[in-house]
Design a protein that fits this description.
single chain; alpha/beta; Rossmann fold; 2 domains; six-stranded mixed sheet; 4 helices; 6 strands; 22% strand; DUF2380 domain-containing protein; signal; DUF3280
Length: 187
């Protein structure tokens, strides 16, 4: 009789263990969220006499590429593309409805976009926004600022933004850790 009770206790322990572990195992095997990072807009009001258009275009591309690469390192995210990215679309060069339609058709869960502004020789800033494509709702909207007008400054700003995005956006139907933006999206 005691061995029967021991068997029941062991079986009950196994069931409890499965109930505890199974939800975590299910979440770990779920598909990563698909995130697309489109080009960022750029403006320069520094008033510097030298034309730095080419350098700034390269730094802006580096910012986007770094942001995308850093987000791609997250196990719960995978990077994706949408058709307009081949022609360098930004949120200001494409109709919001078209951008949303392309994102949905490509199966993108989150769309990252924004702009960078050079205010002076040493100070830059901008805005980084993440849109939940299914709900057309902002889930992340941050103003950033950084010192420097060189590759290192743009890379640092992109890495900081990626960490903030990864920590904040909702994934797998879960609420974000902090600051979910209740505003409607790009429409």
């Amino acid at each position: 009789m005691q061995s029967s009770n021991q068997l029941r206790a062991a079986l009950a322990s196994a069931v409890v263990l499965v109930l505890i572990v199974l939800p975590g195992a299910t979440a770990a095997t779920s598909e990563p969220e698909r995130v697309a990072v489109i080009d960022f807009d750029y403006s320069d009001s520094s008033g510097e006499p030298e034309d730095q258009t080419a350098e700034h275009a390269a730094r802006l591309a580096l910012f986007r590429q770094t942001l995308e690469a850093e987000l791609g390192k997250e196990t719960s995210l995978t990077t994706a593309t949408i058709p307009c990215m081949a022609s360098g679309c930004t949120v200001s060069t494409m109709r919001p409805d078209d951008l949303l339609e392309e994102s949905r058709a490509a199966g993108v869960d989150f769309l990252v976009f924004g702009g960078v502004h050079k205010m002076s020789t040493l100070v830059g800033g901008g805005r980084v926004v993440v849109l939940d494509v299914a709900d057309d709702r902002f889930v992340f909207d941050r103003v950033i600022s950084f010192r420097g007008d060189d590759d290192e400054a743009f890379v640092r700003a992109a890495r900081f933004s990626a960490r903030d995005i990864a920590r904040t956006i909702p994934r797998g139907g879960q609420a974000p850790e902090e600051h979910q933006e209740p505003r409607r999206g790009i429409r």
